[in-house]
Structure of Microbial-type PARG catalytic domain-containing protein:
Amino acid sequence: MGRRKGRRGRAERSADQDGSRSRSGDGGGGGKGKGKGRRARGPGKGGADGAGGGASGQRKAVPFGVTRTAATRKEAGVAGEEFYADSNALLSEDHLREALRMRFDPDAWRAAAEATAGSGPQYGRALRKMVQIGTLGTLLRGWYTLPDGDVVHLARKRLDKAARGTVCVDYEAEAAADPASLRGSLLAEVDEWFGRDVKPGEVPLQTQVCLIQGDVLETALALQRAVGASARNVCVLVNGSYNMPGGGWKKGAAALEENLHRRTSIVEALEDPYSVVSGAQWRYPLPQVGGLAIPAACVFRGSEPSGYPFLERPAFVSMVVGWAFKAPPIEGTGPSARLGKKERRLTLAKIASWLDMAVEVSGNSPRPRIFVASPIGCGVYANPPHDIARLFSAALALPRFAGVFDIVAFSILDPTGPETYDAFADALAPILTLRADSGLTPALLDLVKPPADAGPSTTMLAMVCVALCAAAVAQGNTSPSTFQQKTDHFDNSNTATFSQRYTVNATHYRKGGPIFFFLSGEAPMEAFEFQEVQAQLWAAQRGGMFVVLEHRFYGQSMPAPDFATPGLSLLSSEQALADAAAFAVWFNADLEARGMAPGPWVVVGCSYSAGLAAWFRTRHPYLVVGAVCPSGPVQATLDQSDFLAWFEHAAPAPCVAAAKAGSAAIEAELARGQPGLAALSTAFNTCEPLTDDDVFWFLWNVALAVGTADQFSNSVPENTLTEACDILAAESDPIAAFAKIVATSENIYTARPGGNSCVHLSQSYFIADMARPDNPNRSWWWQKCTEFGYFKTSVNGSSIFFPSYSLGLDRIVPLCEAIYGIDGLAPQIEWTNANYGGKNLVADNVVFTNGLLDPWHLLSISSDLPAPSKVKAVTYEAGHCATLNAASPDDPPSLLAARKFVEAQLDAWLATH
């Protein structure tokens, strides 16, 4: 027995495992090791894997390559070995030995392929034949060797079982024999569906539909790993040959089916070269509707661009093999091109049968269920890609497939150009949840790696899609650029400018495509990234560009050196609207100068900036064709008394009861005087002991920390309402529960010094802290004091929070004077409503979306406005700006419908421009 590092013997996984690794000997000397239930075979002592069993005597691996001259040989990384240009001589004894010995250098193979790329197709075919020989040898022996010497064993019993379990299904024959059977009835359903000519998006799908630019097997394995799906539940659709197993794999052809023969065990199911299957009841040619269902195919080699490397960990997927029409009759041209009527109906039936077979092959395996398809029939087979995509969409919409698949991923790697990928992107736009133009890269997958103890689940799967969706649309974002913006748009004598930040994502942009213009609000532009996800997708799906402009005095867009009161005189919504208009004019001119015809603009915002978006459409209708305004509080109000009161409507009854109990317990402590204040100081870990002068400030901040949790009640990106209610339910001491919520609150009223765990709940500290000219919190408070109010009050029991105390304007308004020297707020708030129209906005092509659990909807527009206004509105059962968040499996139907409503409005606006 040869020596083994760590004295570990070679072991083979059981038939239900994907594969295993074990160390080979130090010097390559093989011999016999003990396997699991049988002898494991390894490289023999003194054989192809080593000479004499010692490291020093081991024969060097012969890299693959084809050269004609010594110079070319050097470029290909080949030394001391003769290679022949003739493709038959290429398969010499040495090369056959090298291919069969399971020791393979993908870098050398790739270098040889690159060196001979321009010398004719026969060289590439010959190189692929050598890979095929190695693949057949791997399947025959049941193991292969990695470059580091590790031996990987295949689950031979499982491979044999999969080959025997491969079945051929002829749906036309089954329909003729028993039209009422599950398979036989499919064609009747297809005929009815075909007559309706269902368009993408016409029937809502309960499936995550993804378009991924990448290798189909790499996509399948990436999704499988990401969600922990079983092999049977990840099904790959293979565009097969009608009458020849594997198509041209024996000739070294490069199409998908041939590629899979070199990388997987599919050859055993289709060709059965080692007579694993005896008495098979099917033979080629394949049926017109239906095909082959393979319960498990082992993937153990990488893609051709990576040099067909052996994988460190093989994996199993199921496969369905069908065939598409070759050079069929086509009606029309361009995106509207269609297959001839007969071929189109049959292609829809084919696709439906493949989906049905994918469901059957998964059996009773636990969810999730994933179907990965290539653009079958496109490319050299000359089927129109737009129409093939539309037919896939129509088949997925069949009632029998409702909710059956958790993910359907179209994985397209088009070496001839982006035409097919772009066609699928265009045709599937109404139903796409994810478009990853750079593939499912490790960086994206790392973002959504499930916990080690997380089992496969549809929730985990959908969360993967959510995170991938967010990552995919963000991957094209550029670093922020700056635009020289006027400091004061209303003082012609002031020619000063400042650097205003913006970003552009033009990853999916097509010339003349729409420009989605996102206005950041009362925070740095980076804070809105999650609220941009759906808008980024809308832009990507329509070949558009996504542009974000940072609001003045937030983030790094500073018209003044700090936030001192004199500089803040330049901060107003009017200045912000003028900023946006000046930027849009400049950006369009810049596009035209670069030969990029600007398309129509759509302005989007969230919360305060949603109000800006609505006002921007009314002020500058010549710059934007429409405005999307989620949770936009367009009605300014000094006293926002209904905000805290709404908690009782939005929160579950037990949570409301717990909040009442917490309020009552705190009031009881306050009734004890100084001992109660001391107890509360300890419970809330205040930085300064509470005094009688701090009672109002303390109660108001606690009420805001707990009572504003209902603003966000979405599962993504956060659910502060659920978090708050969970804390209230978990803590037996209601005061401790309130203290925990306050400690984790990011409310700006509870300022905390960096690194200090105590909480500042002293009004004197707040005023002193807000007096600092470098405090960025001064910006939003300035706008509240000068334009909007939005002060949340609770007086005479108007909310469940501290009904025995008055948390009113008489204590809040003086803060504006103390911080900024501002008096007389009410007239300024009234001017804001008179200036913009409040909830009586007169506009067209403006759509508001509002969550009924979010108290801000009370200051927004929640229903269509009567003439002369043409403002549209839709509501949903969720929280703040949820229509812009990435989709989540917990999204209620009303939220899904709201997003669809917005998209319909967008398409209507863009159709007229």
